[in-house]
């Protein structure tokens, strides 16, 4: 059976990396393993057209996981693939910094193999949605078939999580979502996360949309939703 997806795994500890790689391969994934940053960049250059998702440890030699994430987000082929930080660092600031770099998820070590697999499957499932229709509010268009966002005629490059966030607002334009509701929607996992996680994703999304980012409104004391003053709902 041909592997359904290819995962880039960057982990400097050889034994945990081998265990996770073997486990994913047993579940029909192909895994490209790098134990240090320069090797990871070589794999990105060689297999860019085949990589579907990256799992990155922050603390790897030579080129760290943060810089690898930056390279992925600036890569012409890989810029929209899901990125997961899998790392022993578990402070709030580390999670926020990773999300600001464009990561979609953050799993602290130690993590079970099944948990990592579940997070991978969740993010990849968002990349392969069932067919839907175009949604439009003003000059902002959402192609729910291709999972793409356009402002006027310009395609806005989004991460998997950023797309899931804007799709949530577009599909329920009359609803204001609390941070907890948004977290449950974008993670699909029962795990401890910080409230600022949502704020970071919304901030990144607004920045990418430019002036059109005003379509996402902060409802103080409640959460986020579409700006009803700008869209007809």
TrEMBL record:
Keywords: DNA-binding, Phosphoprotein, Two-component regulatory system
One MF annotation (Gene Ontology) recorded for this entry: transcription cis-regulatory region binding
Residues annotated with 4-aspartylphosphate modification: 57
Domain Response regulatory, first and last residues per copy: 6-124
Pfam families the record matches: Response_reg, Trans_reg_C
Domain OmpR/PhoB-type per the UniProt entry, residue ranges: 132-228
Presence of the UniProt keyword Amino-acid biosynthesis in the record: no
DNA-binding region, residues: 132-228
Gene3D superfamilies: 3.40.50.2300, Winged helix-like DNA-binding domain superfamily/Winged helix DNA-binding domain
Alphabetized InterPro entries for the sequence: CheY-like_superfamily, OmpR/PhoB-type_DNA-bd, Sig_transdc_resp-reg_receiver, WalR-like, WH-like_DNA-bd_sf
PROSITE patterns registered for this protein in UniProt: OMPR_PHOB (PS51755), RESPONSE_REGULATORY (PS50110)
Presence of keyword Phosphoprotein: yes
A Gene Ontology biological process term: regulation of DNA-templated transcription
GO cellular component, one term: cytosol
PANTHER family: PHOSPHATE REGULON TRANSCRIPTIONAL REGULATORY PROTEIN PHOB, REGULATOR OF RPOS
Name of the protein described by the UniProt record: Response regulator transcription factor
Source organism of the structure: Halalkalibaculum roseum
């Amino acid at each position: 059976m041909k592997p359904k997806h290819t995962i880039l795994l960057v982990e400097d500890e050889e034994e945990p990396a081998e265990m996770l790689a073997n486990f994913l391969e047993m579940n029909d994934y192909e895994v490209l393993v790098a134990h240090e940053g320069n090797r990871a960049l070589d794999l990105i250059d060689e297999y860019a057209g085949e990589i579907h998702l990256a799992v990155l440890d922050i603390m790897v030699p030579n080129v760290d996981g943060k810089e690898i994430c930056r390279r992925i987000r600036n890569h012409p082929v890989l810029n929209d693939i899901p990125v997961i930080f899998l790392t022993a660092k578990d402070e709030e600031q580390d999670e926020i910094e990773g999300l600001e770099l464009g990561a979609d998820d953050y799993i602290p070590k130690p993590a079970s193999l099944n948990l990592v697999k579940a997070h991978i499957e969740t993010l990849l499932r968002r990349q392969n949605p069932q067919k839907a229709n175009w949604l439009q509010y003003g000059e902002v268009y959402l192609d729910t078939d291709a999972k793409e966002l356009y402002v006027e005629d310009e395609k806005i490059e989004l991460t998997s999580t950023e797309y899931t966030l804007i799709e949530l607002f577009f599909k329920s334009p009359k609803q204001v979502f609390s941070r907890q509701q948004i977290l449950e929607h974008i993670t699909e996992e029962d795990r401890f996360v910080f409230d600022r996680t949502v704020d970071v994703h919304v901030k990144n999304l607004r920045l990418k949309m430019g002036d059109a980012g005003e379509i996402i409104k902060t409802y103080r004391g409640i959460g986020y939703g579409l700006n009803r003053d700008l869209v007809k709902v």
